[in-house]
Structures are given as structure tokens and as C-alpha cells.
Amino acid sequence: MSQFKLDPMIIVLFLLIIGMVWMMTKQRKSQREAQNFVDSLEPGQEVMTLAGYVGTIVSIDDHYIVLESVPGGAQTKWVKAAIRKPGAGVPGVPQQAATETAADVEIPDNVAKLIGEDTSIVDKHTDTTEHNKRENDK
Fold first, then answer.
1. Which of 44, 49, 130, 131 has the greatest number of beta carbons closer than 10 A?
2. pTM higher than 0.70 for the full model?
3. In a domain, 138, yes or no
């Protein structure tokens, strides 16, 4: 009886081939899903591009999609392949924060107030009332 012996190099080569086939199958599946997503796009849908631009689809043709970031705003033309995923707003930013208006945001006189530092020295040198008096006296 002869014993069957496998060379370790053949085992390694076999495992590499199996890994490559598995990775190619996974990549093909991902490409198919991306293509199905792009084919299912319709005007009025919100999407995000690879560059991070979030907008609503205005029109679609064979190769391009026209997006606008705000209703009635500027429109930009994108290649269909640049559309990455549905845009449910900006990732990581709650919808409440995105709807704040400029009136809701307090803008400090200087940056030191944002980080809680003592601003008395800065305020003394940047007092605008004294500056305005000097300008009016001229």
C-alpha cells in the first residue's frame, strides 16, 4: 500500500485559488447590486454621490443624472456611475440639526468665547464702541 502525500505548495496554491474565486464572486455581486440601484433611480429621489454631494434627482438620461441640493437651487450634472447610495440626509447629522436657521445660531464676537477662555483681555483691545467714536471724530 502506498501512502498518498500532498505537497504543501499544492495546498497553498489550492487555497489561494479558492480565495480568489470567492473574492471575485463577492465583487461581482456588489457590482450587480450597484448597477441595479442605478437602474432603479427616478426623478425626485434623494441620492448621495461618491464625492459626498447629497441632492434630489431632477432628470435622468442614458449616462447622466441632474441633481439639485435644494428645491429651486442650482442644478449639477453627474455621471450615473458617481451615484453611490440613497441619500437620507447627511450621514452623522441629525435631521433636526440640519433644519436650523441662521436666526437659531448664536455667533460669538470672537473664537475664544467658543472654547470658554477668558476674553476680557481680547475684549479690551477690540472694543468696537471706542473705535466707532474715534472714526466719528475724524
1. 49
2. no
3. no
